[in-house]
Amino acid sequence: MGDPRHPVLVRRARRPLELPARADPHEPASRGIPTVPASTYTVDLARVEPGASIARTRGAEIRVDTGVDPSDDLFGPADLLGGAFAACLIKNVERFSHILPFRYEGASVHVTLEREQRPPRISRIRYELRLVTDEPEQRVKLLERNLVQFGTIYNTLSRACDVSGEIVIETAPRGDPA
């Protein structure tokens, strides 16, 4: 039985999986599961001054707060985690706008992370995803199912803490009447 906090779309196979006669049932490819090399992400971080470091990946870099006292002008580790979650949502809205297709003119997200003290951990993530779209509610729900099911960061964090949110639809402003 699945986790009731994270509903999953279940689809039954149309026919049973057939294994080749000489297949090793322990090999994923033998069970009909396509084998895709895992993606790898690398980040290098170096302290550049007290309380600040530079994180680099590919051709990008960002200054981050690594000091004892929180910085008001740099992202700290929890802020980066929230930012990664928010970016995952927006990136997948963009992705699924092409796959489904799904029309939208704008997207923004507000993320709140809740931290427990003992043990220190992020225990809850709440989000509000705002979309400017004229898509019907049924299509918005389809998009939401895809965001939940296929978001890498979403799936990773939902295994570690409670994740929930809502999508708020805003209608596109109409042009001035002629």
Set out the fold topology.
Elements (H helix, E strand, L loop, with lengths): L43 E6 L2 E6 L2 E6 L11 H23 L6 E11 L4 E12 L4 H14 L1 H7 L3 E9 L8
Parallel strand pairs: 5-6
Antiparallel strand pairs: 1-2, 2-3, 4-5
Helix pairs in contact: 1-2, 1-3
Describe the structure.
By secondary structure, the protein is an alpha+beta fold. It has 2 domains: 43-75, no CATH class; 76-173, K homology (KH) domain (GMP Synthetase, Chain A, domain 3, 2-Layer Sandwich), CATH 3.30.300.20. The protein contains 3 helices and 6 strands, in the order βββαββααβ. The chain has helices at 77-99, 137-150, 152-158, and strands spanning 44-49, 52-57, 60-65, 106-116, 121-132, 162-170.
Number of DSSP strand runs:
6
Radius of gyration of CA atoms, rounded to a whole number: 21 Å
Put simply, the count of helices is 3
Q: Could you please say which CATH topology of the largest domain applies here?
A: GMP Synthetase, Chain A, domain 3
Tally of domains: 2
Strand order of the largest sheet: 1-2-3
Can you name the CATH architecture of the largest domain?
2-Layer Sandwich
Low-confidence stretches: 6-13, 16-23
* H and E string: EEEHEEHHE
Shape: globular
Termini Cα gap: 57 Å
- Identify the CATH class of the largest domain: Alpha Beta
